[in-house]
Amino acid sequence: MEFDLTTFILEVINFLVLVWLLKRFFYRPVLDVIEKRQAATAKTLADAETVRREAEALKSQYQARLADVDKDRAAARAALAEEIAAERTRRLAAVEAEVNADRQRRQMLEARERSEREAALEREALTIATRFASRFLDRLAGPELNAKLAELALSELDALAPDKLDILRDPGASIKVVSAYPLDTAQRAAFTQVLGRLAGRTLAPEFSDDAVLKAGVCIMAGSWVLMANLRDELGFFSGSLEHGG
């Protein structure tokens, strides 16, 4: 095949014309379309980045809220645990106090019952002792015991406090000396002397005897009474038992 310069030049011219035509009528619109697509892609990428950043921000906020919720939940659990522990402690203390109070009530009741039993046994024992003493002293009662009790009454008169003797100093007070057995002359003289000395004046006591006294004497001056006899002493002892000692 022979090289034809004219043909070659024409081909070159045709190629250049084609390139100009392509650039003039085809390449520019394609570039515009590509630029528009690139711009749209860039905008899409920018929007996506914005959305991503917003999503990241929302995620951070959500995580922060979750952390706050976890903290609040932990604080609520701790507060609830403390409240439960405090309530448990309070209820245990209340139960313990109730148990202690019940124990104390039982102990007081047992102590009271024990005291009542002991008091009942003591009263029973003292009652038996009183009966025994009464029967025993009834057998011992006689002029000799009467004289001993009369001497005891005289010694008690000397031991009385001054304020107990005011009734003896009253001129209008009648003084009586009652004995279980009749007093002899010496015994009457002794009572007259002691009573007169205590009264600070001469006295003439009224003497009498009453077997109910069993043994001993009873001296009366108005409402004032000095007892030194078996009947009154045993009666006082029995009365003390009836009133709990």
Question: How does this model look, in words?
Answer:
- This protein is an alpha+beta fold.
- The chain has two domains: 1-112; 141-242, no CATH class.
- Helix content is 74%, strand content 9%.
- It has four helices and four strands, in the order H-H-E-H-E-E-E-H.
- The protein has helices at residues 5-140, 143-159, 185-199, 230-242, and strands spanning 175-179, 206-209, 216-221, 224-229.
- A hairpin with a 2-residue loop joins strand 3 and strand 4.
- Helix 1 packs antiparallel against helix 4 and helix 2 (143-159) runs parallel beside helix 3.
- It starts with a helix and ends with a helix.
- Mean pLDDT is 78; it is low at 236-245.
List keywords for this structure.
245 residues, alpha+beta, 2 domains, disordered C terminus
Number of domains: 2
> Count of helices?
4
Largest sheet: 4 strands, mixed
Strand content: 5-15%
Report strand order across the widest sheet. Answer: 2-1-3-4
Return Rg in Å. Answer: 66 Å
Question: What's the overall geometry?
Answer: rod-shaped
Number of strands: 4
SSE-based structural type: alpha+beta
Secondary-structure element series: HHEHEEEH
Span between termini:
165 Å
**Average pLDDT figure:** 78
Ranges where pLDDT stays below 50 over 5 or more residues in a row are 236-245
List the helices and strands and how they pair.
Layout: H1 5-140, H2 143-159, E1 175-179, H3 185-199, E2 206-209, E3 216-221, E4 224-229, H4 230-242
Helix pairs in contact: 1-4, 2-3
Quick description:
This protein has 245 residues and is of the alpha+beta class.
